[in-house]
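Subject: Interface between my chains keeps coming out wrong

I've been trying for a while to get a sensible model of this assembly. When I model each chain on its own everything looks fine, but I need the whole thing in one frame so I can look at the contacts. Pasting all components below, labels as-is. Any help appreciated, I'm running out of ideas.
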Amino acid sequence: MKLTVLKDHLNEAIGHVSKAISSRTTIPILTGIKIDATGAGITLTASDTDISIQSFIPLESDGTTIVELYAKGSVVLPAKFFSEIIRKLPTQQVQIEVKDQFQTTIRSGSSEIQIMGLDPEEYPLLPEIDEDKIIRMPSDLLKMMVRQTSFAVSTNETTPILTGVQWTIADGKLKFIACDRHRLATREASIDVDSSLEFNNIVIAGRTLGELNKILPEQNTLIDIVIAENQVLFKMNAILFYTRILDGTYPDTSKLIPQAYQTELVVSTRELIDAIDRAYLLSREDKTNIVRMQMKEDESIEISSSSSELGKLTEQINLHKLKGELLKISFNSKYMLDALKVMDSDFIHIGFTGAMQPIIIKPEENANLLQLILPYRTTG
Amino acid sequence: MKLTVLKDHLNEAIGHVSKAISSRTTIPILTGIKIDATGAGITLTASDTDISIQSFIPLESDGTTIVELYAKGSVVLPAKFFSEIIRKLPTQQVQIEVKDQFQTTIRSGSSEIQIMGLDPEEYPLLPEIDEDKIIRMPSDLLKMMVRQTSFAVSTNETTPILTGVQWTIADGKLKFIACDRHRLATREASIDVDSSLEFNNIVIAGRTLGELNKILPEQNTLIDIVIAENQVLFKMNAILFYTRILDGTYPDTSKLIPQAYQTELVVSTRELIDAIDRAYLLSREDKTNIVRMQMKEDESIEISSSSSELGKLTEQINLHKLKGELLKISFNSKYMLDALKVMDSDFIHIGFTGAMQPIIIKPEENANLLQLILPYRTTG
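Reply #2:
Try treating it as a single job with all components included. I did that and got this:
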């Protein structure tokens, strides 16, 4: 292999695939980035077995030569050092040459670096994926759906299936569900999909979707999502992102969501976030995160928290609407803040079916997003 | 005590004094910020016994009312919670009221916070300082002198005196010296001082000077520095910064600096930094940080490093000047980068008196700044 490539393009591609490099891998070859130079361009690959990412650098783009290829070939180079040294090279023109025993030389200006490369034959093959089950959606929508749900996955590895987000596809709609044992987040959207396509057991790790969100392009563009037996492939412009589907069956969460409310209120999202954010500061001190909400006759709520060491805090918020029985309810302020921060609506609707029943939070005028939080069993 | 104060001014003052709050203090009262409200304004005080900082908020500034005072008084409030909650209050007008038992109420908009305050009588008194020995200097010069020396202090607590920067005042000049056992940094400047004033045993902790640098104002202004028996007081506009002088006698370092060189070179600071920065990436892998410099007949140097695991790197740099015997010398690349990064000169002069003798780095045309690095005893 021998080629020159423009530093900025190489840097960008390394930045993308590096998100699949795990610092805790026990498989030596996976600490490296695989480089394949072919007649079409350069492909970089990185993987931690759960996630695999490929980034492609074409020979030219918009009439500008990006890669000059002198000899095809492949090599695996240590990811951390390779990405750091490329970023610091003095010139845009970077030459990479691989000789016997994968001995690799990188030249840029008057810098010359010799790296011991690894055998690309030892690098695991990426899964071959049939492209017959495809959904297509805007990257902005995907990003938003991930942001609105993935924070609610469980971090407890004893129930691995709950560390993922469940994807359900039915009737031309895509639905994400995330839940740990204390809260649930769900977001639904109509997408461009063959109405005969139905899935209910695609579960993708929350951590993986977080990495995907970092790679999704800044500008809105259409993403193809290919669904296979136990893999999902996200196809972006020049980037392929493969992820494993989690093993197991996701629990049925539909029964958790009440169909009618005993009490309903509408409140300014910003005012509620700010008040709970302040209450959180005290609730955090006692490690409980408990904040209380008390509804009042004058269509207001009082938010309060206390810490045995520091003191107590009360906040008054006027409601936009209040209907039903006045309740006094306690909840985890951190969970409430997580739910409120993804609302993307000036006013939110909160529904209650009793002081010990789930709290349901929705944007005032959008039935596609729903957050559920279990209250704390406290009095006082 | 009862007053209202504008949130932004209170926030700024808290930000300044908080730099003296240590999370590791074992003295409970020092986890707090002392607030004194008098007829002149509000004074905030924080201390970790080594550093004490006071920030003053006047009743008004430029015709704008900042503080409305209803009752004088003092209280100590828990620093962490106090600073976080003030930052998040909903309105600019913040009311603080202290009642019996230092029970403190903070009101802002419809937020009300009750904090258990501590007795200000328990708060340690700040040292009383005679203001007869004063030096005055521009804040920018002080900041620069700290930046150019304090990185070289020792981090090894077994010789506490070396964790400080030595200040020498003589003949109207102020000189800073910092050294651990491997390098030395020194910076000198003429300042506005009574020529009879002489000191040679003011040693201030490098960490303290780092905190001072964060507080020194953005715009250049004159700073008064008051030197007392075992304290130094930095007087800025509205801020007083007290620091302890380290106990002990600073070693005489004047003999370490050679008076004549066997080899001298002048090189572009940027080119040398970039080359050593790349070489550092490999040298770091073997935890030695060893980088080699070899001088060549054609007025160039070769910078090289290697790692048993990764490979090796070589860099060629053309010199601006080269005089004397051609040397091959090894050094700690991290120390060299620290020294080069504070040069503030496009070209630097490096002087050598042999492969095992100190390396002396200076700006090409400025004798006020000098960095010394001991070479490594390696061959090859």
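Reply #3:
Confirming on my end. The domain at 134-252 of chain A is CATH 3.10.150.10 (DNA Polymerase III; Chain A, domain 2).
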